[in-house]
Amino acid sequence: MIGRRRRSNTKEVVQPRSPGGPPPMAPALLRVGIGLFVVYAAIGVGLGWWGVVEAGRLTTDPGNPLVLAAREAPRGEILDARGVVLAESVREGRGGWRRNYPHPEAEPLIGYLSPRFGASGLERSYGAELLGIGDGVGTESLLRKLQRDPYDEQDLLLSLDLRLQRRAMRMLRGERGAIVAIEPATGRILALASTPTYDPNRIVDPATGAAYFEELLDRPPKDSALLDRATRGVYTPGSVLKMVTAVAGLGSDAITPATVYPAQPAEEVTGMPVDGFRVRDGHHPQTGDRALALDPATAVSCNIYFAHTGLNVGGDAFLAWGARLGFGAPIPFDVPTAASSLDGGDGFVDDVELANAAYGQGEAQATPLQMALVAAAIAERGTLMTPHVVDGLRAADGSIDEVEPSAWRQVLDRGRADSIADAMRGAVESRLGRPYAGAAKIPGVVTAGKSGTAELGGEGEPDSWFIGFAPAGDPKIAVAVIVEGGGTGSQAAVPIGGDIMGAWLRLQP
Amino acid sequence: MAMAAGRASRVRPRWRGREARLLVVVVVVLAVGWLGLASTVAGELTIGQPAPLVVLAVMLGVVHVALVVDGRRRDQVLLPVVGLLMGLSLLLMSRLPQDLVVQSLAGVELSLAGIQLLWIGLSLAVAATVAVGLRNDLWLRSYKYTWAVAGIALLLLVFVLGQETNGARLTLRIGPFAGQPSELLKIILVVFLAAYLADNRALLAGRDSRLGPLRLPPLPYLLPMLVIWGLALATVVVQRDLGAALLFYGVFLLLLYVATQRRDLLAFGVVLFVVGGLVLYTLFPHVQDRVAIWLDPFATAQGAGFQIVRGLFALGRGGVLGTGLGGGLPTVGSGPSIPAVHTDFVFDALGEELGLAGGLAILALYALFAERGLRIAAGARDEFRTLLAAGLTLVIVVQAAIIVAGNAKLIPLTGITLPWIAYGGSSMLAGGIILGLLLAVAVEDRPGAAIERVGWRERLGDASRAAAGRVERVVR
Amino acid sequence: MDPLDLTLWLLRLAFLAGIYGFLVLVIRALRRDLRQASDAADRPLGRLVVVGSPSGDPAPGAAYLLAAANTIGRDVNNTIVLDDSFTSGRHAALTYRGRSWYVEDLGSTNGTRLGGQAISAPTPLAWGDVVEVGQVRFRLERPGGR
User: Which of A171, A497, B5, C42 has CB atoms 3.0–4.6 Å from A466's, for a disulfide?
Assistant: First the structure.
């Protein structure tokens, strides 16, 4: 190359332009060419983004025409933990398929799939998997592309146990409310009930669908049957939130289990002054002049104790500890969830709001699923497992793609978590706690729990809450129960919680 | 004289071996694609009805022969590249639902693929005619102001008489003929700009007047720049044609830069663009809508963002290798899954069926076209031809970039066509004219040794000459 | 696996591979052009044949091989040195730009003429054109001769 390249070895050859003339255009053309190349490369990267990185999300998007077009195609079954079919495709007429739901008790978690009204619940969020649409990347889908049929339907294997689910639905019959039952060690959802509910078979049925669906849509929001209260209902949590305050207090070392507030007994009578506002309590006269530590304060659900603790922790730390438990953002789950929050999402405007939030009032809001996770994290000695209801996907050839239980967050160390667990055990088992949460006691089993009564302001009965787990030493189940307008916790939610936990323990082999 | 004799001696046919080989490759590749498409659709191995493909192959062959007979030495790559793009267009149009467009022409009912094939044929005919017939470009150059006036008149005609399609006033209908004048306008614009800049670039490169800290060319010479800026704005406002405005303005700026090599003018133009964009954004709801859709099409996935979201679904489903021709693009309800799939969203359609691999290959085809076009520009005989070739190349490449980036949600979507692929007569004809003009400019004046292979003997000769000295005197 | 599915899959890959094959062919062609352009820069791009020289030096019929840029003048630093009293020190430049030759007067005393007309700006040349530098007349010819 170099040998051939002959350079004129005289002085610089005269530039081929007259002085003052316009510059030659070739360099500018080169620069424009390079610029265009860069732009094209950037576009190529952008295409790669959609074609590779986002491909899976796009292809399985419920709005994708592939998913939509396949509403009438056969899809996989949805089965409970023991293999009971909860949703299946049945042939209808010639060539058509319709979804059938043998056990509507599992609504609204399962959801419905209607050619007319779309899909909801797991039918929607797992639409692509049930249909078996690949995401276009990876070897597995590459192989699938060898076939012309883009559909390779998969069955959804749930951790839900229909027996427990049925019992939960029965407990809520006639009420508006929700129950979440979870296995603390794995994060598997055992029951997820929400009432009032609907019959998906009537939505899917072309004959009754239109009228029925319209009737469902026309209901006032508080009576909505389409809303899954367990995952997307946000409620004022009341006293059950005190366990979040306890997690924040112990976790941030703002308190120890022995911490007492000397002013607390007096403030039961006078109210606790915060920024010129008084936090009132006075519903546990039996403790008299005694300044309460964590255990008795939990047992009698002392608002002033937890208000002090919240203030000691401080607003930012309280939010941070709440976030470790899942507050502040939608919980990643198999169906869409609503975000719970301690501060209404806009920060604590003052200490009054912080003090109120610390015992579950103020602007604190929580979903039943969120509160079940709080109970599960305490039960599992500080480890919060990722909640899931889909245990696995079963392909047509019988192979199962299992969802491994995974720790979502390590919220607390064991010692601190056990302190709170002890306090919750006392709330059910101790003499002090019995009037409040004692109705959750499972005969012969050491039970832990916390009742809650969410004052909503204005008329009407407060919402009734319970969170708990059992057996206290080796928890097999954690629950959260809400009964809207159920009165004080001990009236409605607490016995339901105890019943569900007891039922599950009896169902265990 | 000697010159005339030189010209006359070049009329004998000259083989274009490279072009012939590349065209054969193009036809073979398209045949494979056709086989795959027909087989996928039919569910059995079949070539289907390959008549359109045969017609395309024959037409490409005819253009090739015309260039061979013409005998002047010129670029041999442009035609195969464009031919492949047209072939992809034909494959896609044959594969889409044929009832997207149905027209009756002289009693013959034609649908999507048939009409597109007709336009491809006309386009290639125009290209060949221009390439072979345009020997003297004086008339292009001298009547630049006539062109400018014609262009403005065309624009005004659209402003007044244009019909709306998809919210943009693009289509001009005169009697039985309908077309989109902005396609023709972009060529007129380039011709005018090339002539104007070639004549005035020395002055534009000078720095005579001051505007604040900016040293500008003499103001009278800036006027056309401002006029074009205004025209672009007017196009957006009156025609609601964001794509054409962006294209005109982008090509204009780049061409100005090529002519003057002045980065400050480029920067000034970009500033004007930003200012204009902001003004339009604040004043016109439809511009705001476009930007909002661009930022989050998924927010309005069932409304305004529907098209782009569906397009992205297609790209996502395509993945890396695509679903194969005929394997993608589900038909939802009565129509294809992406509205306007044959005009504005051809790239996403090809992206689904050919995958990322195919999409990148299409981009590469345009990039190669750019390389070729700019090289023709750099080697052109005079400044007018340099600017003309550069401008025409830029029109194609920038237009492709705008619509592909819009399809991929990298910039707000604007409704312009993907050159030589999208359905549309005006667009296809404009593509033909551009191809023809480029091939005309690409004619090499020096039938010397530059293109012939350098054999080892000649290299040896070179080396000995190099040893002998820089200048050699050969006495006959 | 269904043989038809396999066939279709192979066809699909073949189609994509074909497009890329085409791209490779085109890129190779472009690279060859680039190489030849740089080769061509080293090869003579034309010949300047002396057709008239009153002083007899250079002799009529002599030919200079031209590189891309050539200057003509009396100065020894020119690529083509003319010992002619009508020629200025740096008289004219002959440059090959893009695809054609240009002649340009470098401010000489006696001027440079093309086809009898004095030139003032760079002027394109065609093969066979006659350029007069001072008293010497040259004809531009193709590098390989006739």
Answer: A497
Strand blocks (E) in B259-389: 331-332, 335-336
What pLDDT sits at residue A20? 43
Phi, psi dihedrals of residue A409, rounded to the nearest 5°: -150, 150
Encoded tokens for A389: 């209801």
Beta-carbon separation of A148 and C71 below 8 A:
no
The number of helix segments (H) and strand segments (E) in chain C equals 1, 11
CA distance B92 to chain C (A): 14
Among candidates B36, B444, B471 on the partner chain, residue whose Cβ is nearest the Cβ of C8:
B36
pTM equals: 0.64
Q: Which chains share 3+ C-beta pairs under 8 angstroms with A?
A: B, C
Mean pLDDT over A332-351 rounds to 87
Say how many CA atoms lie within 13 Å of C144 toward its Cβ.
9
| Range ranked top by mean pLDDT from A354-358, B428-432, B461-465, C32-36 | B428-432
Q: Smallest CA–CA separation between B134 and chain A, in Å? A: 24
Query: Minimal CA–CA distance to B199: which of B150, B251, B143, B254?
Result: B143
Q: Answer whether B449 sits within 8 Å of C144, measured CB to CB.
A: yes
| A10 CA: distance to closest CA in chain C (Å) | 7
Look at residue C120 in the predicted model and tell me its pLDDT.
85
- Tens-digit pLDDT profile for residues A78-122: 898 888 998 888 877 655 678 889 988 888 889 888 877 778 888
Q: How far is A11 from chain B (nearest CA, A)?
A: 13
Q: CB of B397 within 8 Å of any CB in chain A? A: yes
Buried b (16+ CB within 10 A) or exposed e, C108-124: bebbbbbeeeebeebbe
Is the bond leading into A471 cis (omega within 30 degrees of zero)? yes
Question: Where do the DSSP E strands lie in B93-167?
Answer: 102-105, 108-111, 163-165
Query: What is the pLDDT at residue A281?
Result: 78
By C-alpha distance, the chain C residue nearest B44 is C4
* pLDDT confidence bin for C54, thresholds 50/70/90: confident
> Which among C8, C18, C80 has CB closest to B471?
C80
List the single residue in A8, A17, A145 with the smallest CB-CB distance to C67.
A8
pLDDT at position B447 is 40
HSE of C30 in the Cβ direction (CA atoms, 13 Å)?
20
> Quick one: pLDDT band at residue A140, thresholds 50, 70, 90?
very low
B296: its two tokens: 């989050």
| Chain C: touching chains (3 or more CB pairs < 8 Å) | A, B
- Would you call A38 exposed, middle or buried from its count of C-beta atoms within 10 A (0-12, 13-18, 19+)? exposed
Chain B 249-278, CB below 8 Å of chain A: which residues? 254, 257-261
CA distance C18 to B419: 21
pLDDT tens digits, residue range B129-167? 999 888 777 777 778 788 878 877 877 777 777 766 655
Whether A148 shows a pLDDT value over 80: the answer reads no
pLDDT at res. B81: 96
Residue in chain B nearest A136 by alpha carbon: B319
| A25, A30, A43 ranked by CB distance to B410: nearest | A43
**Local confidence band at B174 (pLDDT 50, 70, 90 cut-offs):** low
Question: Residue B164: what pLDDT?
Answer: 66
- Cβ contact, residue pair C42, A11, below 8 Å: no
Residue B430 to residue B395: CA distance in whole angstroms: 10
Cα A441 versus chain centre, distance = 27
pLDDT band at B215 (very low <50, low <70, confident <90, very high): low
Give the residue from C45, C78, C80, C94 with the most A CB atoms within 10 Å of its CB, the best one to mutate. C78
CB B228 within 8 A of CB B249: yes
> What is the tens place of the pLDDT at every residue in A175-184?
889 999 999 9
